[in-house]
Amino acid sequence: MRARAALPAGGGTAVRYGGWPLLIALALVAGQTLDDYALTVAGTILVYAILGLGINIVVGYAGLLDLGFAAFFAIGAYASGLLTLKLGWDFWATLPVAVAAAAVAGVVIGYPTLRLRSDYLAIVTLGFGEIIRITVVNLEVTGGPNGLTGIPPVTVGGREIVTPGAFFHLALAFFAVVLAATALLARSRLAFAWRAVRADDTAAEAVGVPARRVKLLAYVLGAMTGAVAGPLNAAQLGTVDPSSFTFLTSLMILLVVIIGGMGSRPGVMVGAVVIVGLPEVLRTVQEYRGLFFALLLIAIVLLRPQGVWPYRPRRLRLPARPGPAPEPPAARDTVLEVDGLTRRFGGVTAVDGLALRADAGQVVSVIGPNGAGKTTAFNCVTGMIAPSAGTVVLAGRDVRGLPPHRVAAAGLARTFQSIRLFEEMTVAENVLIGRFARDRALLRPLSRADLDAVRRCLDFVGLLEAADRPAGGLAYGDRRRLEIARALAGDPRVLLLDEPAAGANPTEKRALMGLISRIGALGAAVVLIEHDVALVMSISDRVTVLEHGRTIAVGPPAEIQEDQRVVAAYLGVPDDPETDLVSEVLR
Ligand SMILES: Nc1ncnc2c1ncn2[C@@H]1O[C@H](COP(=O)(O)OP(=O)(O)OP(=O)(O)O)[C@@H](O)[C@H]1O
After folding, report:
1. By CB distance 3.0 to 4.6 Å, which of 51, 54, 438, 504 could disulfide with 508?
2. Helix pair angle (164-186, 36-55), 10° resolution
3. Any bridge partners for residue 514, and if so which?
4. Is the CB of residue 406 less than 8 Å from the CB of residue 354?
5. Do residues 20 and 27 lie in contact, with contact meaning Cβ atoms separated by under 8 Å?
6. 3-state percent helix, strand, coil for the chain, nearest multiple of 5
7. Ligand 1 pocket: which of 376, 381, 416 to mutate (most atoms <8 Å of CB)?
8. Mean local confidence (pLDDT), 254-283
9. What letter does residue 151 receive in the DSSP assignment?
């Protein structure tokens, strides 16, 4: 393990270490040397860069495809323009109202729609963009198709911002502020949650990330950021024209992040230069301008599919030495009590009156043939599906009916039958996401406790050396261990493992058995679904056997091994030579 500093995150590019102030200083110099035409174009580039930083939160970080982002640009512009013209407000006073209006619109449209999958969400956002445009075109107060005209210039320190040079400097100041705000967001725990939700929202929710809230935050914060460009653009032009907020504008804003690089803030700047600047450069070729622009965009997408300046994840800097380990709970209490758990799917009763108890430090297994109802029982306990009847009490608290992230926060972690990792995130980042079950703060940077927990859990499963590798590149056994480390990061009281040995070779199975036994020593109860009966019998304190949803046997492994109903359930034919073979396997 390499020695690492105890800083939460770091990186290696020039932009990361003070490159932005340098670029802004260069822009200031350019502001002194460029002519009025170039300064006007540069001002528009900055407006689009601000829009790009907004949509980058929604699409780049959280992976929510938004085809109507121009709506927030319009809301910002109209809110500011109307307050200035109708109520005589000063530009600066209109700004917070414009941003708040976009936030409200973001909540109103986002709350009901963000449960939709990406393609449906894209259609809804496209519709929202059109609704806003058609509304402002048809309302009298917004000036109809003519929009708003005669918006007074911005005043700064008593000086009117009227020249292209002055506007460029104003836009640069706006850009710097928005950039700093989005940089802070990118360092927060929320940014990690966004990436996890983008990769697999079900898995993120199951390990404690409040996926819907996290998506809504992306939508609203993106809307607020983009809305800043509205008043700025209105002040630049002195007008608000509804034809500036068409579907084409939304596409242009989206292209800023696609061309620049999804999730990359320097990429947004590059994308804005390409999308706004390139057509201006191509003015020299007049009627072929559109054609050349399209060809160049295609070339960029083909040559740089990740964008001109792709997102480069920061490496998590884990502490060089282990931090203090959490105290294991002293009492060997019952931490999970499931009673009468039933789940019906139409005419099929997948789980029928299941009773299950797990004490701290115990390994309790649930076995049964295919279709016996094991996974359905897990899904009911973890809140992924609602049970039809029954109770689930976790550490004395009734968690039935709670969403998975709240069940996880109450102390119940799980793994999945088919492994669900955040493939593009690193091994350490995957474990970090499991930490949300313990600490749900979103808007603060990573803490030392977060990084200590990641280090401890990786060390526990033997993956510390692989901390910086992408999870998608791990071998099968390591993927299983990583899923367990992620589940342990939230210091769970109960860990549900769904067929952890499926697909593992004998060596991997042995390592897994050792690992599961050690989890008990941490003070957590382990509930295991497993088809490998030999593994179950060797590590379990108690075994529950299901068949067709019903519990047919409960007891210590020795009793279960002798139970003829269990043997029959596995083969279906008791007292037959093959049954003896199954009895052998059960032993
Ligand atoms: N969403 C669903 N809709 C309808 N039926 C379902 C659904 N999920 C599970 N079932 C049914 O419930 C029963 C139990 O399935 P479940 O996947 O829980 O069994 P299992 O014991 O986990 O099986 P396996 O060992 O193959 O994973 C099966 O008959 C299955 O077809």
Report:
1. 504
2. 20
3. none
4. no
5. no
6. 60, 15, 30
7. 376
8. 91
9. P
| CATH superfamily of this structure's domain 333-411+493-506+522-587 | P-loop containing nucleotide triphosphate hydrolases (3.40.50.300)
Contact partners, residue 245, CB within 8 Å, separation at least 6: 70, 71, 73, 74, 77, 129, 132, 133, 136
Phi, psi of 358 (to 5 degrees): -135, 130
Write out the two tokens for 185: 């967001």
Distance CA 263, CA 175 (A): 17
Q: Is 374 in the pocket of ligand 1 (CB under 6 A)?
A: yes
Given a cut of 60, whether residue 302 has pLDDT beyond it is yes
Distance CA 467, CA 586 (A): 38
| Mean pLDDT value across residues 383-410 | 93
Which run of H or E residues covers position 9? strand 9-10
Paired strand residues for 364: 527, 542
**Candidate of 342, 356, 375 to mutate for ligand 1, largest count of ligand atoms within 8 Å of Cβ:** 375
Average pLDDT, the chain: 88
Q: How far is the CA of 457 from the centre of ligand 1 (A)?
A: 32
Q: Where in the chain is the domain with CATH 3.40.50.300?
A: 333-411+493-506+522-587
Secondary structure (3-state) at 82: helix
HSE value, Cβ hemisphere, 13 Å, CA-based, for 320: 5
- What pLDDT is attached to residue 300? 86
Per-residue CA distances from 7 to 20, 383, 435, 442, 448 (Å): 21, 36, 18, 18, 8
Q: Tell me the sheet residues that pair with 357.
A: 337
How many whole angstroms from 548 Cα to the centroid of ligand 1?
10
* Tens-digit pLDDT profile for residues 452-479: 999 999 999 999 999 999 999 999 889 9
Query: What b-and-e string marks burial along 281-308, b requiring 16 or more CB atoms within 10 Å of the CB?
Result: ebeeeeeebeeebeebbeebeeeeeebb
Q: Are 262 and 59 a contacting pair, CB within 8 Å?
A: yes
Which residue's structure tokens are 């323009």? Answer: 81
pLDDT digit string (tens) for 338-365?
999 999 998 899 999 999 999 988 999 9
* pTM of the entire predicted model: 0.88
Range name among 170-184, 217-231, 466-480, 570-584 with the lowest pLDDT average:
570-584
Q: Is 143 helix (H, G, I), strand (E, B) or coil?
A: coil
Instruction: Return the H-helix or E-strand segment holding 95.
Output: helix 91-113
CA–CA gap between residue 38 and residue 140 (Å, rounded): 36
Complex-level ipTM beyond the 0.90 threshold: yes
Place of tokens 């640009």: 73
366 lines ligand 1 (CB under 6 A): no
Label the pairing between strands 348-359 and 9-10.
Answer: unpaired
